[in-house]
Amino acid sequence: MQGAKAWEAGRPWQDVLWNYSPTVMKSRIVIKEFQEPKKLIIPEVKLLNYCLNKEDKIGKAKAIAFEKYLGYTRENQKELDNLIRENILKAKIKERPADKYGRTFSAEFYVSFLEKNKIFMVTGWKLGADDKFPRLTSAYVKPEKRGKNED
Question: Domain DUF6883, which positions (predicted)?
C-alpha cells in the first residue's frame, strides 16, 4: 500500500521498502566540511559579543535564553564552544543558498539541560571560497522545542 502511494507521488516504491527519501538520507550524511568538529571555526568574539551578550540589541534574547536553559554566560563561553563541537556530528545539517560570501549552512540538534530535558539548538555557518572549514555565524536555542530525554 505504501509503495503504491510512493509510486503515485512520483517516487520509486523501493524508497518505502528501504525507508529512504532524499530528505531523510541527506539528514543522515554529515557534510564533509563538518566531519572534523575540532577544526570548525567558532570565533570567541561571536560567542562573547553576540550569542552571550545581554547588552547587544540583536543578541540579547539569545543570551538570555542560553543562560536560562543551558546556563551559558560570557564567563563560560568555552563550554558553549565545546557543546557545539560535541553535537555537530549528530546535527541535521542543511545547505542553504550560497551568497557572495560563500556557502551557507544551518546545523540543528537537541541538547540536554536540567538532567532529563532537552532543547533545540540552531547554529548558522558560512564557508567562504578560500575557507577550509565552516565558520560559526549564529547560534540560538528554541525554547518552544523542548522535550524529555529518552535516556
Answer: 37-142
